[in-house]
Amino acid sequence: MVATEDFMNVLCSLVALLAAANLCGALCERLRQPRVIGEIAGGLIVGPTLLGAFAPGVVAWLFPSSGPVANILGAVSQLGLMLLLFISGAEMRLRFNRSERAIVGSVSVTGVVLPFLVGLVILQFVELEEYWGPQGNRPSFVLIFATAIAVTSIPVISRIMAGLGILRTGFARVVLGVAIIEDVVLYAVLAIALNLAGGPSTKVFGLPDLLGLEPGSSVDIAYHVVATITLLAFFLACAGLIRAAAAKARPLLTGVPGTAKRVLFLLAVTIACLFLGVQVFLGAFVAGVVVGQSRSEAADRAQASIRRFANAFFIPAYFALVGVSLNLRQPIDVWFLLAFLAVACLAKAGSVYLGARLARAEPSRAFNLAIALNARGGPGIVLASVAYGAEAIDRDFYVCLVLLAIVTSVIAGSWLQSRPPAVFSQHDEDEPAKAAETAGAS
Questions:
Q1: What is the CATH number of the domain that holds 379?
Q2: How far is CA 261 from CA 57, 80, 140, 256, in A?
Q3: Which segments of 238-328 does DSSP mark as H helices, in order?
Q4: Residue range of the domain that includes 194
Q5: Structural domain contains residue 10
Q6: Would 180 be classed as within a structural domain?
Q7: Residue 102 is assigned to a structural domain of this protein
Q8: pLDDT tens by residue, 46-104
Q9: How far is CA 390 from CA 56, 107, 108, in A?
Q10: pTM of the full structure
Q11: 315-353 burial by CB neighbour count: b if 16+ within 10 A, else e?
Q12: Does 69 reside within a domain?
C-alpha cells in the first residue's frame, strides 16, 4: 500500500500537471494552435525549465526521479501513451473517391521512402554516435533518425482542420489518408528500432524467455522483427474476424458497458504484446484500429466516452510529463538543432510536394499538402518519448525531436489558418466540372 505521504505527493503532482496542461492547452486553442503544444508548455512551466529555476526543491519533490511516486507517474504516462495511440488507431475510418486515391498513393510512397533515404544518406556521412543513448546502437539510431524525418501527425492536423471547418473536404481526406498509411508503417519501424536497441533492461520476459533467446543476439533481433510484423499484419488482416467473434460472445457480456469492453480489449492486447516481446504502444495502436471498424451508434458512444476521459486526464498528463522531462535551461547544440529542423522539414515537405505533383495535383494544392503533412505533433512526441525511455537516444536528441514536433505543428497550424477555407474545398467543386468536360470531349 502506498504511504500517505507518497499518496499526497502523487496527488499534488497530478494537480500541478493537469492544471498547467489544461490551462495552457485551452490558451493555445484560443490562439488557434494545437492543444498538445499547450500541454507540453504546461509541463515546461511546472518542471525544471521554469519552476525549477526558482524552486528546484519543489520540482524535485513533485517529480522525483525514483521511488514510488516516480513509478506511479511513469504508469500514468504509459497509460496516457496507450490511450493516445488507441484513440488514434480507432479514428482510422476513411474512404477516398477515385480521384483522390492517386494522390494518397503517390504521396504515401514518396512521403515515407524519400525522407527515409535522406536520413540514411546523412548518417552515412555524418557521425552522430554522441546522440545515442546507453542502449543505443547504429541500426536502432538509423531507424529512429529516419522515422523522425518521415513521421506525420494525425491528431494535430485533424484537430486543426476540424477547427477550420474543412474536415469533410477532399483536401482533408487526402491529408488524413496519407497520415494513416504513413503512421501504420512508421510505428512498425519504430517498434523494430526499439527492439534492436534492447531497452533499459536486458531481462528477458515472456515468450522470448521461454524460447531461451539471448538479448541482442541475431536470433533475438530476428524474432522481434518477425513478431512485430506478424502482430501488425494479423490485426490488420483479421479485424473483421475479431469483431465477428466479439459479436458471437455478446450474449455472455450482457450488461457490460461498451466502454468497459473496449478498455478490456486494449488491456488484453497490451498484455499479449508484453508476453510476445512486442512494443506496447504498437499493440495499443492496432487495438484501436480493430475497434475503430465497428460502426454503430453504441460503438461511437463508447469510443467518445473513452476519448473524453482520456483527453481530460491521461493524455494531458502524458504530454505534460514530456514537458517536465525537458530542461530547456540546459545547454544544447543550437547549430545541430537548427540544421536538423531544416533538413527534416525540407525532406518531408519536399517529398510530399513531389508525390502530389507526380499525381498531377496543382502546385498550390501540392504546397498546402506539403505544409500540412510536415506536422509531427503527437506521433513525433511519441517517437521521442518512447525512444528516450528505451535509452536508444540521449537527452539532447530527445529535446531535438520534441522541438521538431512542436515547431512543425505550429508552422502547419499557422499556415493552414492563414488560408481561406474555400481554398481547400475548391478542388471538390472542380472535379465534377472536369469529369463533365472529359465526358463531353469523348
A1: 1.20.1530.20
A2: 43, 18, 36, 7
A3: 239-248, 258-276, 280-292, 297-312, 314-325
A4: 93-296+323-433
A5: no
A6: yes
A7: yes
A8: 999 999 989 999 999 999 988 888 999 989 988 988 888 788 777 765 565 666 778 88
A9: 26, 31, 28
A10: 0.76
A11: bbbbbbbbbbbbbeeeebeeebbeebeeebbebbbbbbb
A12: no
